[in-house]
Amino acid sequence: MRRPFRCLLVVLVLLLAGCSDSGSSEDAAAPAPHDIVLPRGAYPGHLLVSRDGSLWITESGEAVARRLPNGKLRQYSLPGNENSPGDLEEGPDGAIWIAGFEEFIRIDPDDGSIGIGASFGPYANPEVGLPETVAAGPDGAVWFGDAGVPPDLLRVSSEGSTSTYSLPGVEEEAAINGMALGPDRAIWLSLSESFGSGHGEIGRFTLDGNLDRWPLPPGHAPQQIVSGPDGALWFAEADNRIGRITTDGELSEFELRPGLAVNDIAVGKANTLWFTTEKRVGRITTSGDVSTWLVPDADYLFAIAPAPAGGAWVTDGPADRVRYFQPPS
Asked: What integer best gives the mean pLDDT of the chain?
């Protein structure tokens, strides 16, 4: 009579031991990627994959979403009103820094604490201008592009102190559409006039305040810019082109078929870069080979970020969705 009970007890112990070794849900294996459906009206804008594999998503209004590597989704409600979170970057301090309306936003990914650089909060500073773009600097600080008239750069230390730098020779009507830290430890800028002329240029700003500028042909409007896998800077153009510039200023452009205005660009794997147009996801190699794919049911594709498991994440604002895209094999 005791032996069946003893066998049952052994089985129960083994089952419990297996459960204890399975780990917490936070450590569970990442599920297969799929579309991320956000709350109605979220209208996702910009994307960032942080060093821990999390996907950060800015939403219209006062929220930022984070998809953890295990697939769970967290929402961060921002204090105040009209934060309008936009471009975002992971700072040298490991925090997520976001350009907001008349403020910059800092989220600590470890404890979820939020700092707002404006008229309140632990990063209070009323002189923050109009942050619109952001890049990690080579000096342990975070740099924002200010959409004021004329535009300038805002440097924010990890403690929240700020300094403003003017852009010599840049016209008052210019806009900073993108920023990136280059392999030469300079900050690279996409500059364009904001009142319809379409004239654009690429800028290289160094910490001593020097700005070098390379004009693009008339009508070429640079957008987001990234440091490419080949040691050059790559940038999206709103007029169906992708541009490339070396740190020495050698410029080249790759023309897409008409109608494919490029919205965003991001570094992929194996010497490739991802980009988006209104309805398509594209990929370009560092040698200039281009492929594009139509995304079924897409309303308007904007930001793109590489997915750690392969493929890419793409925001579709009107659909309140971040789409997962994997090119057909």
From this structure: 86
Q: How many angstroms separate the CA atoms of 267 and 229, rounded?
A: 7
What pLDDT, in 10s, does the model give residues 272-325? 999 999 999 999 999 999 999 999 999 999 999 999 888 999 999 999 999 999
| 184 CB-contact burial (10 Å; exposed 0-12 / middle 13-18 / buried 19+) | middle
Map the chain to HEC letters.
Answer: CHHHHHHHHHHHHHHHHHHHCCCCHHHCCCCCCCCEECCCCCCEEEEEECCCCCEEEEECCCEEEEECCCCCEEEEECCCCCCCCCCEEECCCCCEEEEECCEEEEECCCCCCEEEECCCCCCCCCCCCCEEEEEECCCCCEEEEECCCCCEEEEECCCCCEEEEECCCCCCCEEEEEEEECCCCCEEEEEEECCCCCCEEEEEECCCCCEEEEECCCCCCEEEEEECCCCCEEEEECCCEEEEECCCCCEEEEECCCCCCCCEEEECCCCEEEEECCCEEEEEECCCCEEEEECCCCCCEEEEEECCCCCEEEEEHHHCEEEEECCCC
Longest dimension (CA), the chain: 94
Task: Write out pLDDT tens, residues 118-142.
Answer: 544 455 555 677 889 999 999 999 9
Q: Which of 93, 23, 85 is nearest to 51 (CA)?
A: 93
Contact indicator for 68, 56 with CB cutoff of 8 Å: no
| 200: phi then psi, degrees, rounded to nearest 5 | -140, 170
CB 128 within 8 A of CB 140: no
